[in-house]
Design brief:
binds cytidine-5'-triphosphate, binds the ligand C[C@](O)(CO)[C@H](O)COP(=O)(O)O, 2-C-methyl-D-erythritol 2,4-cyclodiphosphate synthase activity, 5-stranded mixed beta sheet, 12 helices, 2 domains, alpha/beta, 60s Ribosomal Protein L30, Chain: A, 19 strands, 30% helix, Spore Coat Polysaccharide Biosynthesis Protein SpsA, Chain A
Length: 400
């Protein structure tokens, strides 16, 4: 089943010009640049990329063929452009006649002035062509409709009315025949579905897409710029802070593990896991920032599988929960509170270790230490305490 997309780009863009009554300014609207890409490039790309479209033929305003060729050099599935006609219908007809030399099974006819068409809309039209010889994307009219001139003559019942978009899909042979017949009797229509209806074809309606608007007026261009700018802007985020605190008692041993670094000492630290008090405080700080319980609820001390566990596993898990929410860690800050062992000589190794565990820049990690001047349980050398803070950025719309 061969499908070719015909992109009609032969218009002047008079209504899009800023000065009313002129032609489309220095260049037709389809060659205007929207956020770095021409309108026609945006309109063609989804067809070139679509797995069910075999080739794309552009019908370009006469005299603009070279400009088109330069812009699209190297696209294998793009056919040699055709010059357009005086009206949209004439341009479509020229495209169809060019294809009739080696006729495809189906044709998708799309306005170059609709740069926001997407693969799903193309897919819906193609799906409908499995059962129908014509199918068009359309959206139910949502505004109230009036007929009139200076004054309202009547309110039109909008029930059953649709605003119609492109791409419009057709079995090739009947739409070519319909266009030829319309040309013979000089009938002019505003879209190809109307040509098909006039020729007696049934035209199926499929869901259109609100973004797939035709750029017709200067206001349409302003709206398109705003839409693209909003999409390009980084998503809004909020910064959350969490705190963590942990204590482990000294017991027999010759070393302690602090922030992932083994440090020689005349005692070890008692605990169900490796008793890394620094990483535990950091884990709780991360869980606190995303309001997701604490280290005990994720890794219950009663569960034998965490016996002697490497605490890096707890920290990595908390970081993975941040990432799963689309968040990122801004910075981590931990203070180790003890008289002994001395932390200073190991501080940078600890920062590097935490950075490795989390794939973070070491500049975002602070490790500090303090004594309690001989006061309290840390002052008496009974254990080590750690307190930590974590800042994370979470996407605003996904924050609970
Ligand atoms: N002689 C024409 C007229 C229109 N089109 C194409 O048909 C699509 C829809 O037409 P429209 O938005 O009316 O474009 P213009 O004719 O360029 O606009 P205007 O009427 O404001 O000049 C556009 O991609 C346009 O380039 C065409 O191929 N050949
Ligand atoms: C083909 C079309 O885009 C479907 O909505 C529309 O009919 C083109 O109309 P225009 O008068 O050429 O703007």
């Amino acid at each position: 089943m061969k499908t070719v997309a015909v992109i009609v780009a032969g218009g002047l863009g008079v209504r899009a010009a800023n000065i009313s009554g002129t032609t489309g300014g220095s260049e037709p609207k389809q060659f205007r640049v929207l956020a770095g890409r021409t309108v026609i490039d945006r309109a063609i790309a989804p067809f070139l990329d679509h797995p069910r479209v075999d080739a794309v033929l552009a019908v370009v305003r006469t005299g603009w063929e070279d400009r088109f060729r330069q812009a699209f050099a190297g696209s294998e599935r793009l056919l040699e452009p055709m010059p357009g006609g005086e009206t949209r219908q004439a341009s479509v007809r020229r495209g169809l006649e060019a294809l009739s030399v080696a006729p495809p099974d189906r044709v998708l006819i799309h306005d170059a002035a609709r740069p926001f068409v997407d693969a799903q809309t193309i897919g819906r039209v193609l799906d409908a062509l499995d059962d129908h010889s014509a199918a068009i994307p359309a959206l139910p009219v949502t505004d109230t409709l009036k007929r009139g001139d200076k004054f309202v003559e009547e309110t039109v019942d909008r029930k059953g009315l649709y605003a119609v978009q492109t791409p419009q899909g057709f079995a090739f042979t009947p739409i070519l025949a319909a266009h030829r017949a319309a040309c013979e009797v000089d009938r002019e229509f505003t879209d190809d579905a109307a040509v098909a209806e006039w020729a007696g074809l049934d035209v199926a309606l499929v869901a259109g897409d609100g973004r797939n608007r035709k750029l017709t007026t200067p206001e349409d261009f302003d709206m398109a710029e705003l839409l693209l700018a909003a999409e390009a802007a980084p998503p809004p985020v909020e910064t959350r802070t969490g705190t963590g605190y942990d204590v482990h008692r000294f017991g027999p041993g010759e070393a302690v593990v602090l922030c992932g670094v083994p440090v020689r000492h005349d005692h070890g630290l008692l605990g169900h896991s490796d008793a890394d008090v620094g990483l535990h405080a950091l884990t709780d700080a991360l869980l606190g920032a995303i309001a997701d319980g604490d280290i005990g609820s994720h890794f219950p001390p009663s569960d034998p599988q965490w016996k002697a566990a490497d605490s890096a596993l707890f920290l990595r898990h908390a970081a993975s929960l941040v990432r799963r929410r689309g968040g990122r860690i801004v910075n981590l800050d931990v203070t180790l509170i003890c008289e002994q062992p001395k932390v200073g000589p190991h501080r940078d190794a600890m920062r590097r270790r935490i950075a490795e565990f989390l794939d973070l820049d070491v500049g975002r990690i602070a490790v500090k230490a303090t004594t309690t001047e001989g006061l309290g349980f840390t002052g008496r050398g009974e254990g080590i305490a750690a307190q930590a803070t974590a800042s994370v950025e979470l996407p605003l719309e996904r924050s609970p």
